[in-house]
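Aim 2, interim progress: modelling of the glutathione-bound target.
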Amino acid sequence: MKLYGFWRSLATYRVRVALALKGLDADPVSIDLLKGNQHEAAYKSINPQGVVPALVVDDGPPLFQSMAILEYLDETHPLPPLLPKDPRGRARVRGLAQIVVSDGHPLIVPRIRVYMEKELKLDEATRNRWLAHWSLKALEAVEGHLAKEPETGRYCHGDTVTIADICLVSQVIGAKNYFNCDVSGVPTVMRVFDECMKLSAFDDALPQKQSDAQAH
Ligand SMILES: N[C@@H](CCC(=O)N[C@@H](CS)C(=O)NCC(=O)O)C(=O)O
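Predicted structure of the complex, ligand included:
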């Protein structure tokens, strides 16, 4: 397998964690988002949207969108499962994941930041306010569920890792490490984050531990 991604990319982080949890290896191919390499024709032939990640398996057509890739990995390598068995539990886990992937993360990706800077001419301080505000909002929404719902356990849903945890951790990395958010108001989220970080799959996948981080 080949994983097209970038060390700083939170969506690529999600796929790195899932691969590690499943005990799978993929050769990383770095697409430098800071240099704009995602817009080059060579990469757009892999992913026409010009975003990472993309996963190539057995020379088949590239897989795209981190959630679709996570579910593909879960379906093709069922152990350990990343979704609960029961439909209600699956809906809860997918819902938590989508707060991050569908509502939170899209507001802070490079193309949004570039648009705010180049088209809207917003200064850096204003752009940073946007990034921090929406990063934290997604975590607060997740907290609203985790803090009051009995399904919450050591992790987001019971005592085993699910795709909700993978997404939660990716969002915390952005909020805390990239945008300096004050995360003291999301204690349950941070408790789950700390639990996840005890696992090598989460820790080894951290952005700063990737080989393409060295050049930056
Ligand atoms: N919903 C997509 C998000 C993909 C995405 O936006 N990735 C970012 C990096 S985390 C990217 O490649 N952005 C390039 C850009 O915005 O120009 C997923 O989860 O895979």
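Residues 9-11, 33, 38, 51-53, 65-67, 101, 109-111 surround glutathione (CB under 6 Å). The mean pLDDT is 97.
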